[in-house]
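Consider the following assembly input.
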Amino acid sequence: MFFESIAFLLGTTLMYATPLIYTSLGGTISENSGVVNIGLEGIMFMGAFIGAAIGYYTHNGWIGFLAAGVVGGLFGLLHAVACISFTANQVVSGIAINFLGPGFALLLSRLMFDGAAMTLPLPLDEKISRPLNGVFEQNSFFDMIFNRYSTVYLAFFLVLLVWFVLYKTKLGLRIRSVGEHPEAAATLGISVYKIRYMSVIASGVLAGFGGAAVSIAIVSQFRVTLISGQGFIALAAMIFGKWKPQGAMWACLLFGLAQAIVVFMPRTGIEVSSQLLSMLPYVMTLVLLVIFVGKSVAPSADGKIYEKN
Amino acid sequence: MKKRTSNSALGLTLISIILGLLVGAVILILIGYNPIKAYIVMFEGIFGSAKNFSWTIIYATPLILTGLSVAFAFKTGLFNIGAEGQFIVGSLTAALVGYYVHMPALLHVPFVLICSITAGSLWGSIAGYLKAKYGVNEVISTIMLNWIALYLNNFLVLNEKIKRPGSEATNKVLDSAKIIFFDTWKRSPEGQVFKKAHPFFNDILRTPANAGFLIAIVAAVVILLILNKTTLGYSLKAVGFNRDAAEFGGINIKSNTISAMAIAGGLSGLAGAVQILGFTREASALAAMEGYGFEGISVALIGANNPIGCILAGLFYGSLKYGGSKIQSKIGAPYEIISIIMGTIVLFIAMPKLIKMMKLTKKKEAE
């Protein structure tokens, strides 16, 4: 019973942390290049819809997942055009995207699904694959933890990839240099605009993935209340994670655990209001911010407008 | 010089609004609706009758107040994304105080308003305190406080001792706490007779027309006075204008941050109270954010952070929201087009550079 509970908690943690990991990796890339993207929430919303809708019509969860990334990238492009080329206030542009993402998602949903603000569910065998299904004995300890959809493993692979790119490649050095000191980077011949465009578009792609990871892996359809604040949680995770991909991952796992506890509590028979438990991740964010924020430092040009003379 | 800058801000806002409506029109065409028809339906939905116009004002009222809240914080260099949570806390307080506390009518309403303002104010000052004391960015803390407020609301509203049996809401507030115009009278026999004899008033009284709009206007004027006529307003604006210079000039940034967030929170709390006392009369469990706070951000941006601008922008947004519901019911066009129009307007307002460039190319073409 004890081990079963542990396995359930760990497995559920992985599941709920996954969408947050994609999205906060997006935030990490964008902010390392110096652009704040609080539109991640709206992009996740759109990604969740596109993933579920395209998955439903193509009978293939993977195509849905990729489509969500593409559409997310388009929203990233919009944010990039506004913030980089037209020097918009980055927070305001993000807020606009938080209107546009849900607006377009619900509009398209009503057109594609007979006026409904939700998609029809994907049949189980058309969702994306579960690579470790059958490797472990069914409902055994390891099966309960690791028998997850591929999106979970892809997320962790991307953490490694983003870490490698940011810290071990020339491109990563460029991304970080335009986020720290764009003027200096420009004098070294780096195109600040190009690097920032790329980074912001990547953040959109990843947030699109993050949304789809909810709508086609955790559940099988898109609903209005599906994302409800996860984009913002991912943003907070990035800040705890001190703007580093591995840090963001750990923070996302912590939020995933908080969510897993919410799901787990009723099983224990201990009566705690689910409403109070749902507050946990947000309260935790505030407490951890108070404890850690003094020590974490954002890229110094983060959120600042850069204009080429 | 000053006049010219405010003129150009107004110009940018108007161009952004026009562009937003144009984008809305293009999307309506793409999805197979006649945009002219849709906008006519919307226009009639707003101004077509005394009843519709009254509804428009009811929709606009909370938006004016959350807009003021965001605008006030903006003036002091703070980004209040937490109007949503402060609104929830204010409305919850109003629903509880309006039902559990028994008071004579003349005192009950001001008492509820003060309680809600205080609750919203405290909620806002948490973010102010965290920023002043620990340097926590208010954008993140207010977003978290929004969700905490939402679950706190649901926790209390769904509590067996508080909720109205068979519902997911609190008990309706007492008659003494309502601010709906002539609420008991209009249902009385004399009221019925009067309404039959005066179709115009009947039209208005059929809606929950209430004193909220007047409260919002008073609040806007008070904020205008605080900003322009008081030392507090001066130091708040100085901090917003140039933090370092203000600090050098001897202004205490930390206490300023807390009081700015407290005032902003109080305004959103008041918005919540007005919505309960004037319209819904109960606080309900929320499945998702209702959006008054986020819409308040748009109102503040469209109103150029000016209190009077917020009244106009709130009326504009309220019109779109109420008129938008008409295009859904009358011609079946999706209501979400309103979010898209608003998002587009906000995006264009964020990009004055783009609009200036468009103006320049226009001039060049003219030459």
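Chain B has a mean pLDDT of 91. Ask yourself how this observation constrains the way the partners meet.
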